[in-house]
Amino acid sequence: MAQNGRGGFSRCTCYAGNSMKTLHISVEASLKKLRTDYIDILYIHWWDYMTSIEEVMNGLHALVLSGKVLYLGASDTPAWVVSQANQYARMSGKTLFAIYQGEWNVLKRDFERDILPMARAGGLALAPWGVLASGKIRTDQEERRRRETGEKGKPPALARATGAELLMVERMACLGRTLTSAQWERTETERAVVKVLEEVAAKVGTKNIQAGEWIGCLFSVRC
């Protein structure tokens, strides 16, 4: 950290990515904000492709030894990286990744190609996110209604918010379901999948196609 000659703003280096310094700074900041002295699971949410696997695992292991972190997790990281990282940890007596977090739903099943076999072979727990596909598991009628009313991907709660509440939700919710993608409408492939979910829901007697998603996952596609 450096300060300019006029005593103005400070310049910071190595405050991003997965370097040992970044891990130390982010954990210390999180402990202070959470008002606790340890973290149950520390996830690496972004693999920077610059910091070596050895440095990352050494830095994470140091945090575990210090008692500030109990378990390690990897999020949205390629299977080969997690496998190589855990192999290094095993060979050098370091702490392994114990859990993997990634996007997994009936519309996006990349998770099943590499992550599931890796987790099964390595004994990792799984914590899927985006299981409802950012609201894209919806009927044609619902999508048409949003298009006609101009609601598009915005949640209905936003339209009802006023005053301070509006200021709070606007920053994250104003984009609605376009927060992670500008395409709020479903693709033809996604529509086709949802059609199948509607058929599954009808067969089991539920009106909620999101419930049909999990029933289909369990009994039809054998997730």
Automatic annotation (TrEMBL):
<dbReference type="InterPro" id="IPR050523">
    <property type="entry name" value="AKR_Detox_Biosynth"/>
</dbReference>
<dbReference type="Pfam" id="PF00248">
    <property type="entry name" value="Aldo_ket_red"/>
</dbReference>
<protein>
    <submittedName>
        <fullName>Aldo/keto reductase</fullName>
    </submittedName>
</protein>
<keyword id="KW-0521">NADP</keyword>
<comment type="similarity">
    <text>Belongs to the aldo/keto reductase family. Aldo/keto reductase 2 subfamily.</text>
</comment>
<feature type="domain" description="NADP-dependent oxidoreductase">
    <location>
        <begin position="17"/>
        <end position="206"/>
    </location>
</feature>
<dbReference type="InterPro" id="IPR036812">
    <property type="entry name" value="NAD(P)_OxRdtase_dom_sf"/>
</dbReference>
<dbReference type="InterPro" id="IPR023210">
    <property type="entry name" value="NADP_OxRdtase_dom"/>
</dbReference>
